[in-house]
Amino acid sequence: MDKEITFLAEAYTSIHEKKEVKETPEEAFDTFLIKRADGAAKLAHSTKEKGGLSILTSIHFAAKAKPYAESEKWHNKEGRNEHYKARAKEIYEKLKDLDSLSQKQFQVLMGELEVWGEVYIRSTKPNSIKLD
To answer: Do the Cβ atoms of 65 and 41 come closer than 8 Å?
Structure first.
């Protein structure tokens, strides 16, 4: 029994020690955008199906689709960081008028602000957080 456990442990280790293919910073940024957009879309869908108050969460995550798509278009352009930061500031300014917002408008703006903020930070400080 101990030999079987040792064998399985060694097999598991060898499988998971495969060499990682390192992405270039640009490829890593592309991967980041794609994975974050996919995750937001999945959450938007699952919370919409849940219904009730989860609809607010669905609205929040669905609002991320457009900024992620725009971020992907800008990822190789000069001035991308300035663009990302300007978009975040634009959304932030809209949030300052909290009394005029509906719950839906608030959720949309917060979703958009999260995208622009995280994209700007990932673009300017790619190693600021290790997710793997």
So the answer is: yes
